[in-house]
Known about the structure:
By secondary structure, chain A is of the alpha/beta class. In chain A, 29% of the residues lie in helices and 16% in strands.
Amino acid sequence: MGLVHEIDFGTPASRSEAPVTLTVDGFTVTVPEGTSVMRAAMEAGIQVPKLCATDMVDAFGSCRLCLVEIEGRAGTPASCTTPVAPGMVVKTQTSRLKDIRRGVMELYISDHPLDCLTCAANGDCELQDMAGAVGLRDVRYGYEGENHVKARSSDGALNASWMPKDESNPYFTYDPSKCIVCSRCVRACEEVQGTFALTIEGRGFDSRVSPGMHESFLSSECVSCGACVQACPTATLQEKSVIAIGQPEHSVVTTCAYCGVGCSFKAEMRGEELVRMVPFKDGGANRGHSCVKGRFAWGYANHQDRILNPMVRDSIDEPWRVVSWDEAMTFAAGKLRGIQARHGVEAIGVITSSRCTNEETFLVQKLARAVFGNNNTDTCARVCHSPTGYGLGQTFGTSAGTQNFDSVEQSDVVLVIGANPTDGHPVFASRLKKRLRQGAKLIVVDPRRIDLVRSPHIEAAHHLQLRPGTNVAVVTALAHVIVTEKLYDETFIRERCDWDEFSEYAEFVSDPSMGPEAVEALTGVPADEMRRAARLFATGGNGAIYYGLGVTEHSQGSTTVIGIANLAMLTGNIGRPGVGVNPLRGQNNVQGSCDMGSFPHELPGYRHVKNADVRAVFQKAWGVEISDEPGLRIPNMLDAAIDGSFKGIYIQGEDILQSDPDTKHVSAGLRAMECVIVHDLFLNETANYAHVFLPGSTFLEKDGTFTNAERRINRVRRVMSPKNGYADWEVTQLLANAMGATWSYTHPSEIMAEIAATTPGFAHVSYEMLDERGSVQWPCNDAAPEGSPIMHVEGFVRGKGRFINTEYIPTDERTGPRFPLLLTTGRILSQYNVGAQTRRTANVVWHQEDVLEIHPHDAEVRGIKDGDWVKLASRAGDTALRAQITDRVAPGVVYTTFHHPTTQANVITTDYSDWATNCPEYKVTAVQVTPSNGPTEWQEEYAAQAERARRIEAAE
Amino acid sequence: MPLPETDLDARLQAILRAFEGVEAPLLEILHAVQLEFGHVPEGAQRQIAEALNLSRAEVHGVVSFYHDFRTEVGGRHDLKICRAEACQSMGGEALARQAREALGIDFGETAADGSVSLGSVYCLGLCACAPAAMLDGTPVGRLDGPQLEALISETRR
Lengths: 956, 157
């Protein structure tokens, strides 16, 4: 198998298309204009020795190892900083160059420890490689002089130049004694990640890499993305897992299972043991970058909390009984069939997971449709991006983002609405920040001052700090300005959209009641700021819109999505690189789970179950009748359970008790059911109400595909055997067969073949194709055999783009004397969703508990100090957590995250939801905050119940 | 004596305001801060980073690069002896020794009584009048032992 080897070209690729031909060591090579001599040599297969150059960052020219001779030029220019020229004749190996390089290496090695044999980078060290490449045999200077290597000199005196190892970061170490000060880490932090947490302090011999102001990595501005570790050519910055285990011997390219960016990684292995995850440069979404979660937070896969054997119980008041897979399946199938016999076919359903693969999701909805015989399937996308599906489907004709992530490199104005990319989608944020540093303009619409509003080298041109719940008013006001000031793109609208619909829409938004001045009091956004932002977006060049759950998770979530689509059409920002409407998906496979027919009214490919011809396709493939009656959505399932008509559910990889709104309502619904089957890695919160627990497998333990926010279908590859014995798709198949089906899939590729055969957008997708090309963006069919990086290029999928009026209707959730503050919720960089995975990794050093952000004014009138326990209460419930006083939130607004079950922030959120899709209104809850002594009674009861429900009967 | 926090804040903010709108003002701000406070306190570096939208690592990188920026309070006087080639050849090193012995401190240190900080400088552009030194920003050429002694006793007053 071996390691997947990636070529380091030394300097980034040139974007030019003009070819330049030159000769390197007698070989002719043609490269784009602007390419470095070093890169051109590597293109010809000739590696020029180098230390400070790597193709993730710009050339720096400091190590003086890559010097070459060029005919007709004096001296020995550095090949990394010298661009190619037509007819150039380059020599990379001459006796003069050899002497220089050996001399340079001698100096490097004179101040570097000679502990190669016991060094963690042994076998993966560029310094070692270069010493070999230049033929270093001796260091004439000796090792006794001034150095950074030894804590004490041979006479026992302390060496002031020596610095101890920094092990503060949980995932990597910084050993200054091994540093050659090539600046690759500093440049990676600046250019790739965009955090600027590192610098070279001092000068000359005193130069050292310094996190922050000579701080430890953990206390510095470092966000632990790993770019510096990846860039380091020595063991100076080294993964602790490599120090503990040793060098990997083989690697497999796979896809991260965290957020919707869908980064490609090399899983580097020793046998079945994962040594490290290294971002893959050919990954279309991440281009070789990573964040702290994907890069480092995979320890949950081996966590002791993982449940590896099936368990059952008759009542949730009993302890769990560990059973065999057979027994568990018989138990579960018997219960489900029994419920159907007593309460009807419609009394059971499934929830598919946006964390599982397309193939697994496809099987779970197939279980409902082909085995249960109903359409009771829903997915966690219900609670995040269902309005995206609806809104973009209505206006453009497809329920998906229009661009690839590369597109941002060509954007001129970026509008970020209700998304916090630096925390939620960090790798995309880094790519966006890179573009912003090149001069693109940014408009942020968010109730909080997120990091993108202002952080080193990034500053939003406009921050429209709206009151939570007024998105529609803001988006419509922006359209009002664009229409009334005639800033719209008439040619585009006439060509691509229905002019009559536009005219009607234009009349609607032109009404003065929609204007910035009219809604200022409502939204809290100064009218002048709003007008200037609208003008910038309409006239600033390529305009791209990125949005997140701050848009969708509202009672008018779908309306805002439609408003966003309207803005893009008005300004002609659809159908080419640099523009578009881009939903930032929360989970790794939200896009895929929606594509795969997880919704109760849609078969795979977003085709309504009412369509007989679509049902016919699946009836033929599956050999069963498919119901034409749309099934129940998650909230309806819970309502029906409380009413007594819905009795059993199979939940794959989702923790609805923690992630869904109004915890008390969810728990009441679950408690009312007779058979709750939870299929997960851990005994999650929902499992407290479950009767059957089926152990799940991690993304490292199975084959499959994830579809990310840019519609990119990425392969997930198994690198180790499932610790629980079965991949998740096998578990679903066991359950289906226990219920009488005769499924016989032996590999997920067979499931993908079934998807391709039944779903037009996936017609050409196969594992062979994905293995060959790495990834593909759907639609991928006869019309687009290569896939579709950008959608709606020639025209909208639905024909003409459709403008829909977006009337602002305030949510029913209002502040009043009892609940005067507005709570909005979100994420933090180091934690992911309900935290089931990240809480079981060292990421907790950055975020141990959920905290409540509150403005100093609101805190002061309540007598709350930073770090105090506070009680947070809404009409739905109450909880307690610690306060963090910050002016990131506006007065009147408080903010928290929902990563920790001890807080259960969702006991606060209400069951108000989007009018079109039932997506819950997580982002607006009227609350009161009062000082408190500790956890509330409800939290204590909850914790006690959870502890009782998690008991496992001792083995006999 | 450490400066009172509020006083430092107000004076620093005044400096930052004075440079609003100036392109790439970091070095000029650091000079102004050092002139105002005699050094660039760590707290000031954080505020400068915040004001200029730089990371604190970047400001630290610049401050630590230039030997003339100090992060600790220095002496009341600042004596720098030129130790570059021309001055060396004219007996500069003997003067350097004399200064060290007379003050009882090494280069880069401040006398215990806070009277004077001793520093090296590598060429003041006074090679024609070597050996040279600089006291509180005023260059002194053709220096000899007695003159240096006079300079030192001046700092002790």
